[in-house]
Amino acid sequence: MVAYSEFVKRNAGYIAPEVQDRIRRTRVLIAGCGMGSTVPEAMLRAGFLHLTLVDGDHVEIHNLNRQNYTFEDVGASKVEALRKRLAAINPLATITVHNGWVTPGNAADLVHGADLVFDTIDFLSLEAIVALHDECHRQGKPVISAMSAGFGAAALYFPVGGPCTFRQLFGLPEYGQTDGFSYVERFGSLMARLADQLEPDVARAMAGALKIMEDGTPCPAPH
Fold first, then answer.
1. Could you tell me if 35 and 66 are in contact, meaning their C-beta atoms sit under 8 angstroms apart?
2. Contact, 94 vs 111, CB < 8 A?
3. Helix, strand, coil share of the chain (percent; to 5)
């Protein structure tokens, strides 16, 4: 078995020893393994060893242009395919999988086992996203929300005790249920405020995708 110090020795000069030690000990929850499939591999290669993957979806061919899967994975559960890939990169790592969705009923337990949370849940799952963020806020866990933006990505960081919560940013009630609210509508409002910071083609593509999603159609964004 390869020693951890051997695996990360090329990080020297880029990652301070004390930071590398913190990376080694940090438990990470990745909620959503579509676009989020690229996150655990990057973290694993940096030296993270404790990863929990949550997703109830299966790999489809149209995922392959932007998600970290291969043709061989088509039809397999995303979390199992991703666990197999990560274990082949670093067998030292502990990869826990939850082949299901984040819900208000399991969010507390999932967040409790993590020190850092990545939210890459599908756009349409407002209830799940709010439940995840509410628990991170309640338990004092930092959370990063990542989303595709053309052939790049955007990220929102919610630190512990930060000045803005997910609910505030998306114009949702401070407490309680979010029934009657559309994530597509809330996200569209945020994107409209950010539009002048994006490439025009990206802004148009995002606006078009959100229009299609108004009736519950899964996100058609190409990347």
1. yes
2. no
3. 45, 15, 40
